Amino acid sequence: MFTEYILNHHPRFANKGVEVWLDRDTTEHIEGGDELVLSDKVVAVGISQRTNAKALETMARRLFAKNSGFEKVLAIKIPNNRAMMHLDTVFTMVDYDKFTIHPAIQSKNGKIDVFTIVPDGDDIKITHSDDLHATLKDALGLDDLVLIPTGNGDAIVAPREQWNDGSNTLAIAPGVVVTYNRN
């Protein structure tokens, strides 16, 4: 509601062509903590407790139809529980090729459902992978990247670090991060 008011009435934004990708009155939901802009062409969105797949698909269609510049949307399915309510609490980009990740969002063998959504004429094409590392490399055009596990991947330390927002890191520039002092 506040964002809508600002976009419609503040002189810096009103009548400036700022796109709104989802109507707040819809039954589809995307929360800000589930959206991560990875590059000028790729956005990642968590399918989570607070963001549903239908909203994500609608957002992707609108991004592509409006020529937003985004060429790929990565939909990352995270566990549906309060401790991991948003993508940014368990996965954050901290440099062009580095990400913090809470190990518990992946299966024991390192798999996680990732859907790549791309424009396909007037429609969209969705492909599935269970390899986050490979999907990110491909989407970002990287030779390699590093997934930095919360708590160094330790089965006891990682959940405690995640509870204290160990994966919730704010990158203010590539490789320059702000985090809680307890992490």
From TrEMBL:
One BP annotation, GO: L-arginine deiminase pathway
GO terms for MF: arginine deiminase activity
EC numbers for this chain: 3.5.3.6
Signal peptide: none
Entries under Gene3D superfamilies matching the protein: L-arginine/glycine Amidinotransferase, Chain A
SUPFAM superfamilies reported in the protein's UniProt record: Pentein
Keywords: Hydrolase
Keyword Hydrolase: yes
Listed InterPro entries: Arg_deiminase
Protein name per the record: Arginine deiminase
Gene source species: bioreactor metagenome
